[in-house]
Write a structure and sequence with these properties.
The complex is a heterodimer of chains A (about 525) and B (about 220). Chain A has 20 helices and 20 strands. Chain A is of the alpha/beta class. A 7-stranded mixed β-sheet of chain A has the order 1-4-19-14-16-17-18, with helices on one face. A 6-stranded mixed β-sheet of chain A has the order 7-6-5-10-11-12, with helices on both faces. In chain A, about 55% of the residues are buried. The chains are: A alpha/beta (about 525), B alpha/beta (about 220).
Chain lengths: ~525, ~220
């Protein structure tokens, strides 16, 4: 029997409703199309503060946290930034819940040399209001800005080299974290590629440290981001993380959230369109019509207005790898849907948000990263689409960038990408030069722009998808040149996209729709 | 190699051309001489204010006429004080770091300023920059005439000077950087491949936004 999250469309099936940026569009897919829906949200922890205390007192592969504390010691707490979960979760954020318990415990043990670092890696600096959102008013008011601040991967005076991996990869880290008696990491795992060694080694690392693994060669060797056991990227980061854990006293706290991305009144967005009741159908029609008519700024404001009602489904603490094993198991429990066989055509509605555009417009480079990077990789086992298969994307690919956050992206897309799409050439010929651009570095260090190397990483991120997929066809693009720049084709409709995918021949195609958001992953057996 | 051309006043330091000039005017040999120069400067101030609005070059010429009659010795002997008391305290907090990062990126840092050469030279040393393009006073028999030597470094002329400088150095302008705070420096920003707006005035800020130029504040 098929899994309840797998739906095969019939001749009289309703159109599917997909995100196309910040619009919702109705799409007629051919009979026989297999739609993979997200699993319903798994149960939340009933008493979160109690679960957090339990995790700290009964850690995995470590002494209880209280046994590692002594009065007067220095403690650095690092937390994930707002790139996850997506959209930002309703308050209290899981980070706030953990911090409040953790800080009370530290205070009970006479520890007041505490600093909290937002582990941004080379992401943009979070704004004060965003940090307040993550940590809650009480923690923010007590610690911001002197003892609660963003990591600065380019503050070279405050980055230290911990050593190298056995393969000579440099391990560089925040000086404060490295020189503290104890480093506690507070994570939210949104997808299985989050957390584990990535938290400290990437989040508190330097650009030099990141280059060892954020490169096209590593991405090309990575089968899937979403299964660390099958990811060269995860293996490399783990190598760095083990050096960190050998040198420093690290205590890891990880949390998982469920799939409740939409509030109750919008939860029908993750349902089979054939199963909607009359009220839900009406609301869906209204939403499709509204997003079609509203100007872009209003649509963005509308989506920004509603944080996600995610609930915490697990919290574990202790030694990094032991903790992460549990985190992964819970994440897979929420996301994996068993799928038999790969498709000729994988259809993806590209939503309006990615980890790198919270409170900003999803620019075209992020569309490519989301499509060929994140969404293509939403599998364990084999990719959802056959080697050489077709991705059909729904997105307008609008040539628009946030002037502040994505300033270096404009240069990358309009000055560098026209020179070459070859990720290896980009990496060897252009990346370091742009990464040292003094103006973009200043915007990164003192403003809220991403690091000038970040757009390169966004391109590399799509590299395993790019190597695997034969062609990408975009439906609904409002221009031709951006898709062309990315090496994509455009089609005015789904029918036309399928006609192209068939190569003009009258052959039938296995079509699969990954119906997300919320997050869903295929556990694919070829 | 490539060059990074930095405007100075408003970009790296919060002072403008008037501040050092005022220092010189206020530090004459006798109180009477100071009073005389101050009076002359006050008389010129309406025309300077008008010139500032319409033509940078005329403004510079009017401003630097205040140096007329000052001995070269005095100009140079006060230059260290001008730098220590006026310029150095006015450096924006991030200025040194920005210049250092330009050097780290392999750029030769060139300051291009309407200020006077003997002041800018001291800033070049302080920031460990590579060189400068600045205004020079005409000196006759050891005394400033109050006129400026050509070319006058201001507005569109800066673009031409950068083009010539880059050509002499064998740099590709498309690879060069330029930093300025003012819309009046649009020609200089437009001539390089990597312009950036630093502490931009409103008009430059809008323009930088329209053209997706990097824009940030050092202050």
């Amino acid at each position: 029997m098929d899994h309840p999250c797998l739906v095969t469309l019939e001749r009289d099936s309703a159109p599917r409703v997909l995100f196309s940026g910040d619009r919702l569009v109705k799409v007629d897919l051919p009979p026989g199309t297999r739609c993979i829906y997200p699993k319903p949200p798994i149960a939340k922890l009933k008493d979160l503060p109690a679960a957090i205390r339990h995790a700290l007192h009964h850690p995995l592969g470590s002494e209880p946290l209280y046994a590692r504390l002594r009065p007067g010691m220095s403690v650095t707490i690092a937390i994930d930034d707002l790139s996850l979960p997506l959209p930002p979760m309703r308050r209290p954020d899981a980070r706030q819940s953990v911090l409040e318990v953790l800080l009370a415990l530290l205070a009970d043990h006479g520890i007041d040399d505490i600093e909290i670092i937002v582990a941004t890696g080379i992401h943009r600096r979070m704004k004060a209001a965003e940090i307040r959102w993550m940590v809650g008013d009480r923690v923010f008011d007590a610690y911001w800005p002197d003892r609660l601040y963003n990591h600065d991967a380019e503050d070279l005076d405050n980055i230290v080299r911990l050593g190298e991996t056995e393969l000579g990869e440099p391990v560089e880290l925040s000086r404060r974290a490295a020189e503290s008696d104890l480093l506690v990491y507070v994570n939210i795992s949104f997808v299985p590629m989050n957390g584990g060694h990535k938290s400290v080694a990437v989040g508190l690392g330097s650009y030099a440290s990141l280059r060892a693994h954020h490169n096209p060669e590593t991405i090309r060797s990575t089968h899937t981001y979403m299964d660390p056991g099958d990811s060269e990227l995860a293996r490399k980061i783990a190598r760095l993380g083990r050096v960190v854990n050998e040198k420093l006293s690290v205590f890891t706290i990880e949390t998982t959230v469920n799939n409740r991305m939409f509030d109750r009144n919008l939860s029908f967005l993750s349902k089979n369109e054939d199963d909607l009741d009359a009220k839900e159908r009406f609301l869906l029609e209204a939403l499709v019509a509204t997003t079609a008519r509203l100007p872009q700024a209003a649509r963005q404001a509308l989506f920004d207005k509603f944080p996600a009602p995610y609930e915490v489904t697990g919290v574990w603490a202790g030694e990094t790898e032991a903790v992460h094993e549990r985190t992964l198991a819970r994440a897979f429990e929420q996301y994996l849907v068993p799928v038999q066989g790969q498709a000729d055509v994988l259809v993806l509605g590209i939503p309006y948000i990615s980890p790198y555009n919270v409170h900003a417009f999803l620019n075209p480079l992020l569309v490519s990263c989301l499509a060929q990077g994140y969404l293509f990789n939403m599998f364990r086992g084999a990719p959802l689409v056959k080697p050489g298969g077709t991705l059909v994307l729904f997105h307008p690919c609008t040539d628009k960038f946030d002037h502040e956050q994505h300033a270096p992206y404009v240069d990358f897309v309009h000055r560098i990408l026209p020179e070459t799409r070859d990720a290896v050439r980009l990496s060897h010929q252009y990346e370091q030069k742009m990464a040292r651009d003094p103006a973009f570095l200043q915007m990164f260090r003192t403003g809220h722009a991403y690091h000038p190397a970040h757009p390169f990483y966004m391109w590399y991120w799509g590299e395993n998808g790019r190597q695997h997929v034969g062609r990408v066809i975009v439906v609904g693009a409002d221009n031709d040149y951006i898709p062309k720049l990315f090496g994509w084709e455009t089609a005015p409709s789904m029918d036309e996209a399928l006609y192209r995918a068939r190569g003009g021949e009258a052959r039938s195609l296995d079509v699969t729709l990954l119906h997300m958001p919320p997050i869903v992953m295929g556990d694919v057996t070829p | 190699m490539a060059g990074a051309y930095f405007d100075v006043d408003g970009t790296l330091v919060s002072t403008n051309l008037v501040h050092p000039t005022l220092f010189y005017v206020l530090n004459q040999g006798t109180p009477l001489a100071t009073l005389k120069r101050l009076g002359r400067a006050a008389l010129k101030s309406p025309s300077m204010a008008f010139a500032e609005l319409v033509d940078r070059r005329t403004f510079n010429e009017l401003l630097y006429s205040a140096y007329g009659g000052m001995s070269e010795d005095r100009l140079l002997s006060l230059a260290d004080e001008v730098f220590d008391d006026v310029i150095r305290p006015a450096l924006f907090p991030g200025a040194r770091d920005l210049v250092r990062r330009s050097r780290d990126a392999g750029h030769d840092v060139i300051l291009i300023s309407g200020a006077l050469d003997f002041i800018v030279e001291r800033l070049v040393r302080h920031l460990d920059a590579s060189g400068f393009i600045a205004n020079r006073l005409e000196i006759e028999r050891g005394t400033a005439t109050g006129k400026m030597l050509k070319p006058v470094v201001a507005g569109p002329e800066k673009a031409r000077l950068i083009r010539e400088h880059a050509a002499r150095e064998g740099w590709d302008l498309a690879e060069c950087f330029a930093f300025s705070d003012s819309y009046s420096d649009l020609p200089m920003l437009s001539v390089v491949g990597h312009p950036a707006a630093v502490n931009p005035d409103k008009r430059l800020e809008l323009l930088a936004r329209a053209y997706s130029w990097p824009s940030f504040r050092l202050g």
